[in-house]
Design a protein that fits this description.
With about 120 residues, this protein is an alpha+beta fold. The chain folds into two domains: about 60 residues, no CATH class; about 35 residues, no CATH class. About 45% of the residues lie in helices and about 20% in strands.
Length: about 120
């Protein structure tokens, strides 16, 4: 079953959909994020929206299979980040002073910030 939270995010399988409500047409509409292909979903109620993301993801996976295409995976787990020399130095120093590698320190900080942001 899709998971709904207060930040207008729905999750189904490994896919994440972000949606909005358009009061003019009284319709929820959203997109799957983090993939190159375009996958959308919509509904007039939360229950319709939950079913729509499930149907859209399943249809996407089915079409990929029919066309012999590997479905996009939402995220690889790797990020390329440009900081600038000064911030790079400061971040590396902070990581070293906490006894962590730069990667482990950044992962810890990003995880804390993401959880905090998604709980609001």
């Amino acid at each position: 079953m899709p998971e709904l939270n207060q930040m207008n995010i729905l999750r189904y399988k490994e896919y994440v959909g972000v949606f909005n409500f358009d009061p003019d047409i009284k319709l929820f509409h959203g997109d799957i994020v983090g993939i190159q292909d375009v996958v959308t979903f919509q509904g007039e109620s939360v229950s319709e929206l939950e079913q729509a993301i499930k149907d859209s993801v399943e249809e996407y996976l089915s079409l990929c299979k029919i066309n012999g295409k590997k479905p996009d995976k939402p995220y690889s787990g790797e990020i390329k980040l440009r900081l600038g020399p000064g911030l790079h130095r400061d971040v590396a120093t902070a990581a070293a002073s906490s006894g962590l590698s730069l990667n482990a320190w950044m992962k810890k900080i990003l995880e804390q910030q993401a959880h905090q942001a998604l709980e609001q």
